[in-house]
Design a protein that fits this description.
The complex is a heterodimer of chains A (401) and B (114). With 401 residues, chain A is mainly α. Among the domains of chain A are: 96 residues; 108 residues, no CATH class. Chain A has 20 helices and no strands. Chain A starts with a helix and ends with a helix. With 114 residues, chain B is α+β, with helices and mostly antiparallel strands. In chain B, 23% of the residues lie in helices and 37% in strands. In chain B, strand 3 and strand 4 form a beta hairpin. Chain B starts with a strand and ends with a strand. Classes of the chains: A mainly alpha (401), B alpha+beta (114).
C-alpha cells in the first residue's frame, strides 16, 4: 500500500507542484501544499483510493495552498480571489500542465549549477532529499540547505515563472540541458546503480522523455533523451559478479536493453533530421555507435567512434571531450600517439579528474611502462572512485607485469 | 520589481586624469543608454575612483576611518543604476546591454521590498 501510494505521489508531483507554483508563483508554497495533500491522502485513502488520485491530490493541494497563504497573512493580496476559483470537481478533471515552466524555473542560470540539478530532480521528479543526497554524495542536511538557498534565490531575485521568449530561448534551453546532464551524471557515476540510484536513473528516463514530448522540435532535447536511453540500456552489463566495473569495449552486448536502444535510435534519427550538426547529437551518436554492437565476437567500433570524436572536437573542443577522444585514438593509432596527445592535455588542469588518471594509467600499463603505470593507478585510486570503479582500477593495477 | 545594477570595472582603464577621452566616451554611452531605458531607469550615478574613497569600518563596536574601498579587488564598483523590471530575466537583459569600456561585471541586486 505504502509503495503504491509513493508511486502515485511521485508521478503526480511534477504536474501538481508545477500547476500550483505557476499559479501562485511560489515554489515553496507549492511544495508544502503538495506535501500536505499527500499526508492527508495517506489518511483518507486507507479505505479506498479515489477514482482520480491525481485530481484528488490537486484539489486538496489547492486548498492547502490557500490555508498556507492565509497563515502567511497575504490573503488580502490574492487569497480572496483565488478561493472562489478552485472548485473541487473542476480540479478533479483538469490539471494544467505547467511542467515545462517548472523546469525552466528550476534550471534558471541565475541559480548555482549544482543546486539547479538538485532542485530539478526534487521538484520535477519528486525524488526525496535523501535519495538526491545519496546520488550527489553529500549529506541530507547539506543538500536540504542547498535547496532552501535555491528556492530563496528564485523568490527574492525575481526569477520569472515564464517560459522564456525567443531571444532568450537558446541560452535558457542550454541551461536546462546542462542542468539535466549534471543531474544524470549523478545517476550514472556509480556503475553498480543499485538501491536508491535505481529509482533516480528511472526518473531521469521519465524526465528526459517528458522534455522530449514537451519540446519535440528541439534537436538537443532529443539528443539528451537518446543519450540517457543508450546509457541506461547498458547499465545491466556495466558491473561483473564481483561488483567490478566492466569497460565499454568488454561489456557483453547481449545484456544490453534492446528496447531502450531502439527508443534512443529513433530519438537520434529525429534529432539529426532537425539539425545535422550539434555537439549533443554527436555525443549521443557515439553512444549509438557502441550500442549497435551485437556481440563480443564483433570487433568494437573504435574507428567509427574516433571519426565521431574528431567531428565533435571540431565543434566543441573542451578538454574533457579531447580526453575522451584519446581512448579510441589509442586503439586506432596506437598507445604512443595517444600518450603524446594526453601529455598536451596535462596543462588543462585535468590532473585531479579521475577519468584522466584512469585513461593515462591504462595507456601506460598497455604500453609496458610499468613503473609509471603504477604511480598513475595510485593517483587515480587516491581520487576516491566509486566502489565498482575502484575495484576495476585495483584489478588492473595488480595485472601490471 | 526594482533592481540595482552595480557596475564593476577595472578603473585603471580610464587612466588617472579626470577628464580624459575614455571617461568622456563611456559617459556618453551611459547617457544614451539611460535615454534608451527611459522610465525603466529610476536612478543611478557614476562614482569617483577608489583614490577618492574613504571607508568607515566597525570592528568590535569601534568605528575607525580608513583610506580606500571596502576591499582591494581587480574590478571596482564604478557606478550603479536603479531600474524597474518585470522580473530577473528583464533585469539580466538590461545588464547584458550595459556599456563597459573593456571587460567587467554587472551585479544584479533586487532592492528589498518595502
Amino acid at each position: 500500500m505504502t509503495q503504491a501510494l509513493d508511486a502515485t505521489f511521485r508521478s503526480a508531483s511534477a504536474r501538481i507542484v508545477g500547476a500550483l507554483a505557476a499559479r501562485y508563483r511560489d515554489l515553496d508554497l507549492a511544495e508544502e501544499a503538495f506535501a500536505e495533500a499527500c499526508a492527508r491522502a495517506a489518511e483518507a485513502w486507507k479505505s479506498a483510493t479515489p477514482e482520480r488520485p491525481d485530481g484528488w491530490l490537486y484539489a486538496v493541494a489547492q486548498r492547502c495552498a490557500l490555508d498556507l497563504l492565509r497563515k502567511r497573512e497575504v490573503r488580502e493580496r490574492q487569497g480572496a480571489q483565488m478561493e472562489a476559483e478552485c472548485p473541487m470537481d473542476e480540479a478533479l478533471t483538469f490539471i494544467p500542465d505547467e511542467r515545462l515552466r517548472l523546469i525552466f524555473v528550476c534550471c534558471h542560470p541565475a541559480i548555482a549549477p549544482d543546486a539547479r540539478a538538485a532542485l530539478t530532480v526534487r521538484t520535477v521528479c519528486g525524488l526525496s532529499t535523501g535519495e538526491i543526497a545519496h546520488a550527489f554524495l553529500t549529506s541530507e542536511a547539506t543538500l536540504a540547505q542547498r535547496l532552501v538557498r535555491a528556492k530563496r534565490k528564485i523568490a527574492e531575485a525575481g526569477v520569472p515563472f515564464e517560459i522564456p521568449g525567443p531571444n532568450l530561448w537558446s541560452e535558457r534551453l542550454d541551461a536546462v540541458l546542462s542542468t539535466l546532464e549534471v543531474a544524470y551524471s549523478k545517476a550514472h557515476e556509480d556503475a553498480a546503480g543499485a538501491g536508491p540510484h535505481a529509482a533516480y536513473a528511472a526518473e531521469m528516463l521519465n524526465l528526459s522523455q517528458m522534455l522530449a514530448e514537451l519540446l519535440p522540435d528541439e534537436a538537443d532535447v532529443l539528443a539528451f533523451a537518446a543519450l540517457v536511453r543508450f546509457c541506461e540500456a547498458r547499465r545491466p552489463a556495466r558491473v561483473d559478479a564481483q561488483g567490478c566495473m566492466i569497460p565499454l569495449a568488454e561489456q557483453d552486448p547481449a545484456q544490453w536493453n534492446r528496447a531502450l536502444i531502439r527508443e534512443g535510435d529513433a530519438l537520434l534519427k529525429r534529432g539529426f533530421a532537425l539539425q545535422p550538426s550539434s555537439a549533443r547529437l554527436l555525443q549521443a551518436g557515439i553512444h549509438a555507435a557502441w550500442c549497435r554492437r551485437r556481440s563480443l565476437d564483433e570487433p568494437p567500433p573504435w574507428a567509427k567512434v574516433l571519426v565521431l570524436y574528431d567531428s565533435l572536437v571540431a565543434i566543441s573542443a573542451n578538454p574533457i571531450t579531447r580526453m575522451n577522444r584519446i581512448v579510441p585514438l589509442a586503439e586506432v593509432r596506437g598507445y604512443d600517439r595517444a600518450l603524446e596527445e594526453l601529455e598536451n592535455l596535462r596543462a588543462a588542469s585535468l590532473e585531479d579528474f579521475l577519468p584522466f588518471r584512469a585513461v593515462r594509467a591504462d595507456l601506460l600499463r598497455r604500453a609496458g611502462r610499468a613503473a609509471e603505470a603504477r604511480i598513475e593507478y595510485d593517483a587515480a585510486l587516491a581520487l576516491r572512485p566509486a566502489p565498482a570503479e575502484k575495484a576495476w582500477l585495483a584489478r588492473r593495477r595488480s595485472q601490471i607485469q | 520589481m526594482q533592481y540595482a545594477l552595480l557596475i564593476y570595472e577595472d578603473e585603471s582603464v580610464y587612466g588617472p586624469e579626470k577628464n580624459n577621452a575614455a571617461l568622456q566616451e563611456i559617459a556618453g554611452k551611459h547617457m544614451s543608454f539611460s535615454q534608451e531605458l527611459g522610465a525603466k531607469r529610476l536612478g543611478g550615478a557614476g562614482l569617483a575612483g577608489t583614490h577618492a574613497t574613504t571607508s568607515v569600518r566597525s570592528a568590535n563596536g569601534t568605528r575607525t576611518v580608513h583610506d580606500g574601498p571596502f576591499a582591494e579587488t581587480k574590478e571596482q564598483l564604478g557606478g550603479f543604476y536603479i531600474i524597474e523590471a518585470a522580473d530577473l530575466d528583464e533585469a539580466i537583459g538590461i545588464a547584458k546591454r550595459m556599456p563597459l569600456q573593456l571587460d567587467g561585471t554587472i551585479e544584479i541586486r533586487p532592492l528589498m521590498r518595502g
